[in-house]
Specification:
The chain is mainly α and about 190 residues long. The chain has two domains: about 5-110, no CATH class; about 115-180, Arc Repressor Mutant, subunit A. Helices cover about 60% and strands about 5% of the residues. It has nine helices and two strands, in the order ββααααααααα. It has helices at about 40-55, 60-75, 80-95, 100-110, 115-120, 125-135, 140-150, 155-165, 170-180, and strands at about 5, 25. Strands 1-2 form a two-stranded antiparallel sheet. The radius of gyration is 22 Å and the shape is elongated. The N and C termini lie far apart (about 60 Å).
């Protein structure tokens, strides 16, 4: 019997009106052609987990799984749906007095969308980091930057590492792209 993936249409707890429009699949996930090798994405698996615990009446495990689902939805940029799932899980956690779960849900609710947090992080760069970021964005190597600024290559390396961490970038190219996008280059 074909399974159902509702990750693309999840709209809340079982008892909410218009909860979801299920997407039929044959062991795969929404949008996957029947001829493709069936796969289950983390979001499909998380929705299935929430539904299983709801079916069996496990209130705490349902709320805990909803917290995981909210994190998946938030990471996918579906913040409105994530907020709804967080609210449902929070209500259950409060009824149960589940302090650690409530703390996890507070953390999920307070997290900013990915793009917003990166641009705010750019505001925390020091003047020297802004200077080095501009040189990195122009394609200069650590050695070139060190020579131009009369500092050691190791110091440049430390600055570049700090810049990458503050911007949430995986590498120099991504840091340059983020700096251009967020207007960090003077």
């Amino acid at each position: 019997m074909p399974g159902v993936c509702v990750a693309s249409s999840w709209s809340g707890p079982r008892d909410s009106p218009g909860r979801r429009a299920a997407v039929p699949r044959s062991g795969g996930c929404a949008g996957q052609a029947a001829s493709e090798t069936p796969t289950r994405t983390p979001s499909c698996q998380t929705v299935e987990t929430v539904e299983a615990f709801e079916t069996f009446g496990h209130v705490f495990e349902t709320a805990r799984s909803q917290a995981r689902l909210a994190a998946v939805l938030r990471a996918a940029g579906r913040t409105a749906q994530a907020r709804q799932v967080i609210a449902t899980a929070r209500a259950s956690a409060q009824r149960l007095g589940a302090g650690p779960l409530l703390a996890e849900l507070r953390g999920l609710g307070a997290a900013a969308p990915r793009g917003d947090s990166r641009s705010r992080r750019g505001d925390r760069l020091t003047a020297r980091e802004h200077e080095i970021l501009a040189l990195v964005a122009s394609g200069r190597s650590n050695g070139d930057i060190a020579s131009q600024l009369f500092i050691s290559t190791k110091t440049v390396s430390v600055h570049v590492s700090n810049i990458l961490a503050k911007l949430g970038a995986a590498g120099r190219t991504e840091a340059a792209a983020l700096a251009r996008r967020d207007g960090l280059l003077g």
